[in-house]
């Protein structure tokens, strides 16, 4: 009888051992999860702290930023350009009081930023245009087509109540590099 109990204990012990192995495997699973979490966290930290992952694009051929932002940022094979008003970079003033003059200058400013980033309008994949008056939409299309040709990038055109400095139009772009 004692021998049967010992054998049972051994089986139980083996079971415990298996449970222990299972626990170890479970623990190893947590270890794998921890490694995955660590890798994910390391990627996040690298993205946040690594200055090499993004490059600030700046040019004197476009107006300097009015606030706390960059003219454009290169990151992960993409270019994100801030909205460009129709401000002449040489004077710091609007190219004119009318919509067409401001739209033409905004397009020139976008082209200058693309050039400074080492690319051109053919690599633009998305634009967003802000207008203070949708009645200027037809003029926008005329001016817009001087920079962008078929196949055109995706575009959103949005009417807004106002733009910085009293501008009439602002154009921002995203380009694949």
SSE diagram, text form:
Elements: H1 2-49, E1 54-57, E2 72-75, E3 78-85, H2 99-116, E4 124-131, H3 137-144, E5 154-159, E6 169-176
Parallel strand pairs: 4-5
Antiparallel strand pairs: 1-2, 2-3, 3-6, 4-6
Helix pairs in contact: 2-3
Note down, in words, how this protein is organized.
With 177 residues, the chain is α+β, with helices and mostly antiparallel strands. It has 2 domains: 2-49; 53-176, 60s Ribosomal Protein L30, Chain: A, CATH 3.30.1330.40. Helices cover 42% and strands 21% of the residues. It is built from 3 helices and 6 strands, in the order αβββαβαββ. Strands 1-2-3-6-4-5 form a 6-stranded mixed beta sheet, covered by helices on one side. The longest helix is centred in the N-terminal third of the chain and has 48 residues, at 2-49. The radius of gyration is 30 Å and the shape is globular. Residues 1-30 have low confidence and may be disordered.
């Amino acid at each position: 009888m004692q021998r049967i109990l010992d054998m049972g204990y051994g089986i139980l012990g083996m079971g415990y051992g298996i449970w222990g192995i299972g626990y170890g495997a479970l623990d190893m699973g947590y270890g794998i999860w921890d490694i995955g979490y660590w890798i994910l966290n390391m990627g996040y930290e690298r993205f946040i702290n690594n200055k090499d992952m993004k490059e600030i694009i700046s040019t004197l051929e476009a107006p300097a930023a009015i606030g706390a932002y960059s003219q454009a940022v290169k990151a992960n094979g993409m270019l994100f350009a801030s909205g460009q008003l129709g401000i002449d970079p040489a004077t710091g003033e609007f190219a004119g009081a009318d919509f067409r003059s401001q739209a033409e200058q905004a397009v020139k400013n976008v082209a200058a930023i693309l050039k400074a980033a080492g690319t051109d309008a053919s690599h633009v994949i998305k634009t967003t245009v802000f207008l203070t008056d949708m009645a200027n939409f037809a003029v926008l299309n005329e001016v817009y087509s001087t920079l962008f040709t078929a196949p055109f990038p995706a575009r959103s055109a949005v009417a807004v109540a106002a733009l910085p400095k009293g501008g009439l139009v602002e154009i921002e772009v995203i380009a694949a590099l």
